[in-house]
Amino acid sequence: MKKKFSNPPLYDEETMHTILDIFSGILETLEKKQIGDLQYYDSADVKRLLKISDSTLFRIRKSKNIPHVKIGKKIYYPKWFFNTALKK
User: Fold this and answer.
1) How far apart are CA 40 and CA 69, in angstroms?
2) H-assigned helices in 1-88
């Protein structure tokens, strides 16, 4: 004789709301931490800092004279590079 198992619902609505609240809190915490502890400039920051255009920043980046990291479609530049370069 085979036993039939009924599939219990994965989550009820209250549980889903609790999970979403927890994830929202984690996301908010991570976003605040990234803004406060940000160790990189984005392209707009670098252009303002060096008073250069998009094309100039592009040329500098392509000549590999400036370290950068691409995350998704955005490009970030380490702050330590500018701190040491501007002190000289």
Assistant:
1) 9
2) 13-36, 43-50, 54-62, 79-87
> In Å, how far are 9, 45, 77, 80 from 73, measured between CA atoms?
39, 16, 14, 22
Angle CA 77–69–32, to nearest 5: 70
* DSSP state for residue 51 in the 8-state scheme: T
Amino acid present at 83: N
User: pLDDT tens across 36-58, in order?
Assistant: 456 889 999 999 999 999 999 99
Region of 51 on the Ramachandran plot (φ > 0 left; ψ -120 to 50 alpha; else beta): left
Contacting residues for 88 by C-beta, under 8 A, at least 6 apart: none
Rounded Cα–Cα distance for residues 20 and 88 (Å): 49
Residue type, 43: S
Confidence of residue 26 (pLDDT cuts 50, 70, 90): confident
